[in-house]
Amino acid sequence: MNNNIFKRVVQVLVSYILVGVILFLAAWTVRWPWAWVLVIANFAVLAINFLVLPREVIEERGRKKDNVKKWDRVLSVIGVIPALGVYVVAGLDYRFFWSMEIHDGARVLALLLYFLGSMLVTWAMVSNRFFSTMVRLQTERGTGWRRAARTGS
Predict the structure, then answer these.
(1) Which residues span the domain enclosing 26?
(2) CB distance 118 to 46 below 8 Å
(3) Would you state the pLDDT for residue 153?
(4) Dihedral angle over CA of 69, 70, 72, 77, nearest 10
(5) Three-state DSSP string of 64-108
(6) What is the DSSP letter of 133?
(7) Within 10 Å of residue 109's Cβ, how many Cβ atoms?
(8) What is the mean pLDDT of each run of 10 residues along the chain (153 residues)?
């Protein structure tokens, strides 16, 4: 397995494990069935992605990017904080019964929408072999609208 592919798989595995740890620590129990459903759904999405994504896409997402603007790196780091905060609040909500009970049908619908949204992102990655985690100009690829405008295509 390519080093960048291995690196990306480990990155995603660690992030999914972190989500599970945050959920269960905030809830202060591992006896939360719907949290386990989310953790299993995350790993199912990872497995599907690993099976269907072109290896170049996985490698691209694991590669260190040199030509990324500083503001994009800062925004990426800042964006992690509220994303992880959602799992803290969810766990605390389960622990302290802050919100009303949600019908299982609504949970199943939310799980279905999560899965469909994940598959939409997977489709985008399959369709665009240059799909990246950061915004950057990829002039070294010789693709893009400037080239198309010059060639008239």
Answers:
(1) 1-64+101-130
(2) no
(3) 47
(4) 150
(5) CCCCCCHHHHHHHHHHHHHHHHHHHHHHHHHHHCCCCCCCHHHHH
(6) S
(7) 11
(8) 88 95 98 97 95 89 76 85 95 97 96 97 88 66 50 49
Residue 150 lies in a domain: no
Residue 96 lies in a domain: no
The candidate with the shortest Cα–Cα distance to 42, out of 22, 23, 4, 15, is 15
Instruction: Give me the residue label for tokens 């759904």.
Output: 41
Domain presence at residue 10? yes
Using the Cα atoms of residue 43, residue 46, residue 48 and residue 51 in order, give the sign of their dihedral: negative
Q: Between vectors from CA 146 to CA 140 and to CA 152, what angle results, nearest 5°?
A: 125
Q: What pLDDT score was predicted for residue 142?
A: 56
CA 83 to chain centre: 11
C-alpha to C-alpha distance for 4 and 21, rounded to whole angstroms: 25
Task: Specify the length of the chain in residues.
Answer: 153
- Into how many domains does the chain fold? 1
Terminal Cα-to-Cα distance of the chain (whole angstroms): 37
Question: 122: alpha, beta or left, given left = phi > 0 and alpha = psi -120 to 50?
Answer: alpha
CB atoms closer than 10 angstroms to residue 118: 17
* 117 belongs to a structural domain: yes
